[in-house]
Design a protein that fits this description.
The chain has one domain (about 40-220). About 40% of the residues lie in helices and about 20% in strands. The chain contains seven helices and nine strands. It has a seven-stranded mixed beta sheet, with helices on both faces. A two-stranded antiparallel ribbon has the order 7-8. It starts with a helix and ends with a helix.
Length: about 220
């Protein structure tokens, strides 16, 4: 019985929700600034996108169909559903660490970047704390020489799940505002003090972008 339930949750349910997801997303009204469009259009080779875990829904629907975009998802059972849905949406799924303490040599991630492909790493990891930047994305950017691009989104009508990250799901026909920050480059060998400052600055940047997305989504009614 447990195997049947697991099969349903990991294989059948994502396929059902995939169809719902596509129809749902077609109702959303997307708003993105010209600067963000320019930044996204410029990302051709070995780039790393980073965002809060709560904003993964926006990433999945807005960037679906983008070629060779690798998403790092936790190997835990909690990540199984997102991994299967991501594959159905055309992403390359890499199961690996959330990089909360160290950066393991995740061969698939480094291989993707060497092949000039894009990578997505969740900024606050798979377990949080919520909106607290973990060192994984800047360290990988440093080691590979790849640019790091923060992104966020918000919606005027939405549900925030009662989860550790308060996962955001926009309602049908809602206005969704997206933002992509300027690409960031880091020196090859970051020292501990430099890394802490980079984490603080990037965390502030992501929080500011998220707040701006929220503010702009509400302007629809003013």
């Amino acid at each position: 019985m447990k195997k049947l339930k697991r099969f349903f949750l990991e294989k059948i349910l994502p396929s059902i929700l995939y169809g719902i997801f596509i129809v749902w997303c077609k109702t959303l009204r997307i708003v993105i600034s010209e600067d963000s469009k320019r930044i996204l259009h410029s990302l051709k080779e070995d780039y790393i996108l980073t965002l809060w875990h709560s904003r993964i829904f926006g990433l999945l629907f807005y960037l679906r169909g983008r070629p060779k975009l690798n998403i790092l998802i936790s190997p835990s059972s909690d990540g199984d559903f997102l991994a299967n849905l991501g594959e159905l949406l055309g992403y390359v799924i890499v199961r690996g660490s959330s990089f909360k303490k160290t950066v393991p040599a995740t061969r698939s991630i480094f291989k993707a970047l060497r092949k000039k492909e894009g990578v997505v790493i969740v900024a606050d990891g798979s377990r949080g704390p919520r909106h607290k930047l973990q060192p994984g994305s800047p360290i990988i950017a440093s080691k590979t020489g790849s640019v790091l691009v923060p992104m966020s989104f918000d919606a005027n009508w939405k549900t925030e799940l009662n989860s550790w990250d308060r996962f955001v799901i926009p309602w049908p026909f809602s206005k969704c505002v997206f933002s992509f920050g300027e690409p960031l480059s880091f020196p090859r060998n970051i020292k501990d003090e430099e890394l802490k400052k980079i984490q603080m600055d990037l965390e502030l940047n992501l929080n500011s972008m998220t707040q701006n997305c929220f503010d702009n989504s509400q302007k629809f009614f003013t």
